Give the backbone structure.
Amino acid sequence: MGTEKKYIKSLLKTNEQIVEGAKSVALKLNKKIKNDEAVIITVLNGGLPYSMELMKYLTFDMRIDFIVSSSYHLDKQTDVLKTKYEAKVPIKGKHVIIVDDIVDSGKTMNKITKIISAYDPKSITVTAMYGKPKRIKLSCDEEYIWEEDPNGFLLGFGLDYDEYYRNLPNIYLMKKIK
Ligand code: IMP
Ligand code: MG
């Protein structure tokens, strides 16, 4: 892919750090859900790599589902938040864990948690690799690997620019363009 080197500025988090982070979030979720069961709802497309990593370390019974959401055009957030969801597994009375790559302003997750609440789950927990400190606080539990502002646009491990870079095993800071 010719654009790969072009937009990468620097390495921010290694795959090992992401894996360690996913394991520690999984420990907390395992304690919370214990012998109960949960539905893991992955936010596509960006939440997929983190969700796959996290699920390896979750020990409770689960069903999985997906929600499709997008608000970015290249590296600029647009006001049009497209979110589609039709529950394919029962949500009512179940613990739900919603998994995305990053919670930035929190608008996306705020909308998604409202959609999921309407299904009357037992609990909702949001998890992402990054949760920016200035985000909208959600009315549910939140678990992040890094609750910090990376001060730039991120690429890799689900995080994209124009749908590229999602496959990279590490997280990188993107070069400023223009
Ligand atoms: P929010 O609605 O502002 O919280 O934006 C969250 C959504 O925007 C997430 O689903 C991310 O996929 C995407 N996003 C936010 N920041 C970045 C970034 O730095 N790189 C890639 N995608 C991002
Ligand atoms: Mg996304």
Summary: The radius of gyration is 16 Å. Residues 67 and 85 are 5 Å apart (CA to CA). Helices lie at 4-7, 15-33, 48-55, 107-117.
